[in-house]
Amino acid sequence: MKIVIQLVLWVVIGILGYLVFNSVNGPVKFNKVKQVRYAQAVENLRDIRAAQLAYRTITGKFEKNPEKLISFIDTAKFTLTQRRDSSFIRFNKILKIDEPRDTVVIDTLGYASVKDSLFKTGNHKNMMKVPIEGVDANFELDAGYINKNDLRIAVFEAKVAKDVLLHDQDKDLLAQEREVVSVDGVDGPYLLVGSMTEVNTSGNWPRTYGANDQ
Question: DSSP state, 95?
Fold first, then answer.
């Protein structure tokens, strides 16, 4: 009887030890996986932002269609310009005299491929795919306009749900991660760059993943 009790106690101790270990090791493992996957997703979000900013520079707006954005990178060119001060003489009809005038002249120097300037490695081809092994999903992309101070301003947003990035992780820890509000964390249920409600091209990741604005 005594041996049986001892065995039962050892089993209970073993179970409790496992639960304690798991309660400590679980969050540690979760955070390691999270940091790796967030870093991978951030790289793609940076590429998407670079593509969108190039698109706005050339067209004056952002693009919501992923295929059109990738096609733009393959074909579009930046216009290279030089800004210089100049002057000229204008005849004043009232005073009947020649007057000097200052002006700014913008010279077109040539053109540079967007692809060669920003994506020499061709990594833009897969920038819309979520780069997590075992995940078959794309980043969500949107673009449009908002009105701020009577101005119509172009905006865009690219995002991926934490549920997608951490789909195979502990559900309780994932639920906690979706509710994060922290300077050192990624707030809310998405990892994203840009905004459809604010004039903002920054990402919502902390500096531990690299600079989040451009």
Answer: T
Whether 153 contacts 134, CB under 8 Å: no
Q: Are 78 and 117 in contact (CB under 8 A)?
A: yes
- What's 189's DSSP letter? S
pTM to 2 decimal places: 0.76
- pLDDT tens, position by position, for the chain (214 residues)? 666 565 555 555 655 544 444 555 679 999 999 999 999 999 999 999 999 999 999 999 999 999 999 999 998 876 655 676 666 677 667 766 767 776 666 666 566 788 888 888 778 899 999 999 889 999 999 999 999 988 999 999 999 999 999 999 999 999 999 998 888 889 999 999 999 999 999 999 998 887 666 5
Q: Which tokens is 111 given?
A: 């053109």
The Cα 70–Cα 78 span in angstroms is 15
Cα 194 to Cα 53: distance, rounded to the nearest angstrom: 11
